[in-house]
Amino acid sequence: MEMELGVFFFNFVILVFAALSAREVEAAVRYYEWSVDYAFVSLDCVEKLAMAINGQIPGPRVDAVEGDTVVVKLTNNLPTEGVVIHWHGIRQFGTPYYDGAASASQCPINSGETFTYTFVVDQAGTYFYHGHFGMQRSAGLYGSIIVSLPANKVEPFHYDEEISLLLSDWWHKSMYEQELGLHSIPPRYVGEPQSLLIEGRGKYNCSLDECSSFHYNCTVDECSTSPDCIPCWPSNPECDPHVIPVHPGKTYRLRLANVASLSALNFILEGHTMTVVMADGHYIEPFEVSNLDIYSGQSYCVLFNANRNPSRNYWAAINVRGRDPTTPTGLAIVQYLPNSANLLPPSPAPVSPAWNDFAASTAQARKYVPRPGLHTEHRYGKVVPKRAAGRTLILLLTQNKIDGYIKWAVNNVSFVPPATPLLAAFKFNLKKISSPPDTPPNFDVSALPAATANINASYGSGAYVFKLGETVDVIIQNGHNLNPDDSDLHPWHLHGHHFWVLGYGNGKFDSRRHSKSFNLINPPLRNTVPVFPFGWSAIRFVADNPGVWPFHCHIEEHFAMGMGVMFAEGVHQLPKLPPPTLGCGLTKPTHL
Amino acid sequence: MEMELGVFFFNFVILVFAALSAREVEAAVRYYEWSVDYAFVSLDCVEKLAMAINGQIPGPRVDAVEGDTVVVKLTNNLPTEGVVIHWHGIRQFGTPYYDGAASASQCPINSGETFTYTFVVDQAGTYFYHGHFGMQRSAGLYGSIIVSLPANKVEPFHYDEEISLLLSDWWHKSMYEQELGLHSIPPRYVGEPQSLLIEGRGKYNCSLDECSSFHYNCTVDECSTSPDCIPCWPSNPECDPHVIPVHPGKTYRLRLANVASLSALNFILEGHTMTVVMADGHYIEPFEVSNLDIYSGQSYCVLFNANRNPSRNYWAAINVRGRDPTTPTGLAIVQYLPNSANLLPPSPAPVSPAWNDFAASTAQARKYVPRPGLHTEHRYGKVVPKRAAGRTLILLLTQNKIDGYIKWAVNNVSFVPPATPLLAAFKFNLKKISSPPDTPPNFDVSALPAATANINASYGSGAYVFKLGETVDVIIQNGHNLNPDDSDLHPWHLHGHHFWVLGYGNGKFDSRRHSKSFNLINPPLRNTVPVFPFGWSAIRFVADNPGVWPFHCHIEEHFAMGMGVMFAEGVHQLPKLPPPTLGCGLTKPTHL
């Protein structure tokens, strides 16, 4: 409820600056007031304690126009927990302290505090926000950010209406139990999610075989008296499936984003083909799919025409990809108006490609080609990364054991979030910050890690430091897990930048051989890229955004177990950091 | 892991000052390093996530000698939660910022931070520490503080050995669920505890009738094959009952403290009478009891002689008092050496006075008479409060509804913990701090509160401000709950002071009539006093300790629902507050 005396003025300056620098003079301020609270929710019909914004999961949708300033005044009403909100995909030019990543950009917002995020949404597209402290994302702290084109710009495709769907996964154990389990000896893994959620709705343990349209509306009470009626879809408004009403014949822009804690997902719109037109906020050359892989941290826009038999409804469905799934299909209902939303689709839940068909995944990943001539106003000036890399990192991902704990590590360093945000630590020279190695030790992707690289893994809270404006190549090299013949799929996300995806490959990256295969002609710009099992992914970006930026596996459990690094650039060029972002760790107020 | 640069020096100065000012030149520094973590524990044989210090519940015992300086270097390894530790009964003369009460004395210690508490234990006695942020005490964050007499002082009673027992209650729901339930509409009360714990050990749902000494050692596996063997006492070392080994014929000093979240307890040492010799660290005229009421927040020392039939063992037992109990007796085993600890006492669980026999409770409460001539060195110089009160507060306790939420209120103000610690808010004049009313509105103890006082209840985060050195009388006046004929027992605890208990009474306090009945001859000094249902308790203290001090119901649920006030005195006389105690709310670092 209380606000640091200087913050009003500070934010006002930011806001005016943002408004002046926006390209459209009509750029608006989008103002939100949020309260973060615990809530008892039954998102998949099973009640648990979760974290909600204004009582909602997903939280309130942020709607803005490219160039607008978004202002979110957030009050933390959790009794003892801190909180931060990361604006995933928003680059925070000039406002790195509002990126909302604990240990990187700001101190946690303490219980009872009100903190105001103020930032410009620099590029139209589909984004989302989520908690970025401990495992608060898995507790339900997330929502959509929809950035539209300004009135004087036209989308390079036609649609009549738009729909947004946040996709996620859901556990019945609390985030505290999940996190402690991961940090136990032996570890208690979170396992596969109990449910998959579409717009925060799912059904626990509900096999579609048990349901029929006849039973759709039966309540639990009715079920107890009717042997044919299985309470698979009880009439609980909180966990009724999400309904997507469509008008037959119209074309829809579907904004999809995967905010899952763990799961790579495959999205299917039963009976409809989809035309993919945008990825992570970037226009791409349209292509058609019958099913779409979406890794945690990614977003897509797809077009579809409601041109199927209008006498029935259809499933929108998500299945787990990349892990042997035990979670039933997550289902929503595409309601062909004027059918009832309660008219259950007569078909079984849609089936996705086999979870381990990585050839299909890689093939789809390679299909993304930027659509030239659009977004030419974006920061990089051009779609093609002409500049050769000034610095190349090769980041080896391994499972390691440190003091008996199983950890994830990058070049044998397992990241531990520091108490002092690295942005402040750099800016005020508060401590010596270690720099992790640019390249891994000797390793063998096909061999157990103990044989080579991960003997000497250790904890670290450092950062890679880049020259401002430097072009950086990063090879994210998957390793071999502790179990034989095991390697995970890791979606890697970079804050504060979009990066070009130069290529994917299998096995060990060979610089001489593989860098020749890089796509330097038309690589797509993304903020999240999958690294396939036993494979590598190569990205390039320009370190042109002063700040400290997490680069990490977007699987929340993996980042909690150390799978991430920090990138720092041009921090000393930043003006004063806003006082409300400080106060923790080494940023205590010695002036009082 | 990180420490504010100036804090080493700051604490060093405190420490040297403390050492110099201690009466005994041999005063020592007792140094502890603690880590606060989540832990999966099975204190009553049912696993739950709890908060532990160095993996232990109760946490490590603090052992010190009167005049020693205790230094606790605490690292918060919780992923997202802040934490503080309150040193219950330690007055913190000169170190009010190390009192460990969130919203009063310091900012929460954030995740990853290391914070060092440094304070002098000013008076020999039995004390304890516990979390004082949200409901972290009920999560298991507590332990014992034992302060012994220095070598040149002699206890006014004889004993051969000493034993300490922390008594508490335990819920299977997490503290998050408990707290959210209390703040829900309709409220979900925490209900009676699942178990009572002695030194952190209990047995869930274990009726002693189901147990026999024969079955005591049977394991769950054996039980499954033996129809007579009930797995009431499974062989789980974590929840085996606490064992108190005694040598027949010896005299023991038993140090008892009730750190329960909710429960008033009655302690019984089966077959043994106990001689009560100390209450809340103050010597009292010894008297004998067969059972002892201990309210949450209180401590006692009792003597007993192990003079019973040595061929068997005996129960140490706690039962709930003051609330209609549903929780089985909490049991520990008094092991008469050389009997086996596994020799189960042959008798049923000891029975305490009826839960609602408040006449017995009041009679026992009136028995405490200070033992003159001891502790003459204490701060007040004399046991008898000669000074007449300079200020009198009458604090009415009511259940209220605010915006549909059920709250507890004091003079119609329901306390909400502020984001800025009041100590810093006063010291640096950071905001206007409201002062709640000294007296209640018109009320009727025997009528439903809606009829009179609690129509206009509101939230508040203010403080009563006293002149430094002023003598203050407080009448804590119990009210009528929202349900008919309902009034709770509330144990009220004052930080930073000991107070004289001037008297107890039934019904509405009448100043003219009842103040004449005050015991001004030999009132006992305490830090926690019960307020009986529909009754009042009168206390007096000297506001001579510069700082901000919570005065509140020690039932954690009640304080979480607003049943507390803050007392401030002489704050501007304090030197600089230690920077690590700041950084939250309005104490952000504007100098960086």
UniProtKB/TrEMBL annotation, chains A, B:
Cofactor(s) this protein cannot do without: Cu cation
Protein name: L-ascorbate oxidase
Lineage top rank: taxon: Eukaryota
Source organism of this protein record: Sphagnum troendelagicum
Enzyme category, top tier: oxidoreductase
EC number annotated for this UniProt entry: 1.10.3.3
Localization of this protein: Secreted
Quaternary organization: Dimer.
Signal peptide positions on this chain: 1-27
UniProt cross-references to Pfam families, sorted A to Z: Cu-oxidase, Cu-oxidase_2, Cu-oxidase_3
Catalysed reaction equations from the record: 4 L-ascorbate + O2 = 4 monodehydro-L-ascorbate radical + 2 H2O
PROSITE patterns cross-referenced by the UniProt entry: MULTICOPPER_OXIDASE1, MULTICOPPER_OXIDASE2
